[in-house]
Amino acid sequence: MFLDTPVQSAHASEAKTAMAQHHYQFAPGLVAIERGTTVAFPNLDDEYHSVFSYSKPKRFDLGRYRKDEMPVELVFDEPGVVKLFCEIHDHMRGRILVLDTPYFQKTSPDGRYRLEGLPAGRHVLKAWVDDETVRERTVDLVEGKTVRVDFP
Description:
It is built from no helices and 13 strands. By secondary structure, it is mainly beta. It has a domain at 2-99: Cupredoxins -  blue copper proteins (Immunoglobulin-like). The strands form 4 sheets. It has a 5-stranded mixed beta sheet with strand order 5-11-10-7-8, with no helix packed on it. The protein has a 3-stranded antiparallel beta sheet with strand order 1-12-13, with no helix packed on it. Strands 2-6-9 form a 3-stranded mixed beta sheet, with no helix packed on it. The radius of gyration is 17 Å and the shape is elongated. The relative contact order is 0.23.
């Protein structure tokens, strides 16, 4: 869930997160980040992994590396969906959703979410479901008021 308000926060260039390879899966399988965030790709398995992407927002290939090796950390500076793969394990798939806003939240397992500290005004709230499905709702936010938005 994210507010489609193109504003990069001052701390985005300092933000860091990780997407590990664990039990032969990307963990977590989906990460939402603000543009400018640095991502590490630690290998927590006892076998080699090879993280790469051919996605337009970020093309890279970290090569093969073991658990005790740490590849370079990457800065994701273009908004969009970055699809991740492991060259060694074909079943491994991951996604990094790079957003042009600091206002986002991953939903809980039951589909609930809460965005706080949003600026007042008219905005578009988007729910990213998958690569082909993004739902949108226009919302009018008033300072000090709570708005409930449900997506079918």
